[in-house]
Amino acid sequence: MEVVAMATAVLFEAASYALLFLATYWLLIWAYRLLLHPLSRYPGPFLAKLSDFHVGYHVLNQRLHLQTFRDHEKYGPILRHGPNKLVFSNTAALHDIYLNSSVSKSAVYDLTRQANGVSNVFNAIDKNLHRRKSRLVGRAINERSMRIFEPNMTAQIDVLLSTLLQSAGQPLNMTTLVKRLSIDIVGLLGFGYELKTQTDERDRWLAEGVVKGNFRINSYMNFPALRHTRMDYIMGLIAGKARLKYGELVGRLIRSRLSVARDAHHDLYASMTDEESLDGEKPLPQSEIFQEAVFFIPAGADTVSAAICAVLFYITRASHRSVYDELAREIRHTFATPNDVSGGPKLMACKYLRACIDEALRMSPPIGGTLLREQEESSKTNGEQLVVDGHIIPHGVQIGVSIYSLHHNKAYFPDPFAYNPDRWLSSSEEQKKVMKEAFVPFSIGSRSCPGKAMAYLEMSLVIAKLVSCFDISAAPGNLGLVGLRKMQAGDKGEEYDLHDVFVSTHDGPYLVFQPRKQP
Ligand code: HEM
């Protein structure tokens, strides 16, 4: 009995010492981060100075882009947003970070790799590896390739139009329909595969699966502790079933692609193995090519669908009636029927359409978070100094510009919460220059989006065809409010509600489509 009591007392004492040690350890770390850390003089939320919990909480809430904006409003253009992280909201920092050859993607991108460890163009941090992948992927989705791919895209958009014709007069959730459309398009682009989620139920779960996958990687990137603790297990469970299904689907896509000739489709696989494109280089191993094709699903589907739904949301708000009328006038004047809408000089000349798209991308950027970067290893070892917006950045500090905050910075975009396509057309040349410099939905520099040409083509074709084919209005009653963000006191205007999971996800708008009489 006595031995048990003694052992319990010893254990109790050991546990107390361990707790005391842990408490002292964390107190010292927090005191260091608060008072002595090289970033201690930078303003930011108290909790963010001590730990990643501030950012982690808002990441799990899918509202980090909005919180970062609010923190900028409170603390100014330079924000300490983690013990070792600085976030900016101005163009000087944008250039110093993203156009700087001594800066690379942050090591947090490593956390987005698949279990097999193979990297893709998005998470390849090594510059040489990235350059090679980027050249090959870029060729598959540049403007030239898009001209060849356009008939596939148009055929899918026509499926959407026929769905809308069949349900004319009913309120329809555009998030559901546009996500299916954009997934079907990237399936064709990546693998030459007809997923047919617009017309067939089988793979419709993919839309939700992509969101879960994005949520997981975004949580890891912003709150890396999740990756290294048992939380990973919980996150795995959240994404678990979807991940298995995803693996099964990818296997099916690859088997189907390999069962036909290389040039049977104009897709990423054909482009990346084309001798002319390779220009004497060795092709990437098949596993890597398919890794790129798989990445097209989150990269090319949810981004474009967020943008299209945002445009549809803004142009159908009652307060934007004049925007809708002007857009309809331009499209219907340029194209006699929906079938006449195609890529090329006429579509490019639709300046108001482009302004409507750009204004939606500004207010509701599909990737609105902070793309984290850090000083290159080689630059550190050469003893070079990294200077951002006049600040010397200590080695190892994570840096980035919050795209949502930049796009809502009053210094560049007066009245930032007003959806005003005209700002892109009728502002002074000087003001246009200021806005263009601060408008970065596709990011800038060597890691900017190679899918920009495809995205503009898809967004323009969808909006132009819809406006040409239908009279569109917001659904009546409460359904018409789905997608409207609850604004904070002081935010004027109406904004499309995006949930930040790296690539944003969304719901609504619910719209009603009335077919127009065609000539
Ligand atoms: C409106 C639509 C789109 C937006 C707003 C957008 C935005 C972006 C942004 C901000 C990045 C940089 C991410 C980072 O630095 O971590 C990026 C990267 C990328 N995007 Fe897009 N994107 C769009 C559409 C597309 C499409 C249609 C594709 C192709 C199917 C695509 C393929 C990629 C790829 C492959 C990367 C990685 C590039 C690299 O790291 O070198 N994107 N995109």
From TrEMBL:
InterPro entries: Cyt_P450, Cyt_P450_CS, Cyt_P450_E_grp-I, Cyt_P450_sf, Cytochrome_P450_monoxygenase. One of its GO terms (molecular function) is oxidoreductase activity, acting on paired donors, with incorporation or reduction of molecular oxygen. Keywords: Heme, Iron, Membrane, Metal-binding, Monooxygenase, Oxidoreductase, Transmembrane, Transmembrane helix. The keyword Transport does not apply. The chain crosses the membrane at residues 6-32. Heme binds at C449. Pathway: Mycotoxin biosynthesis. CDD domains: CYP67-like. Its cofactor is heme. Belongs to the cytochrome P450 family. This is Cytochrome P450. It comes from Stachybotrys elegans. The lineage of its organism: Eukaryota, Fungi, Dikarya, Ascomycota, Pezizomycotina.
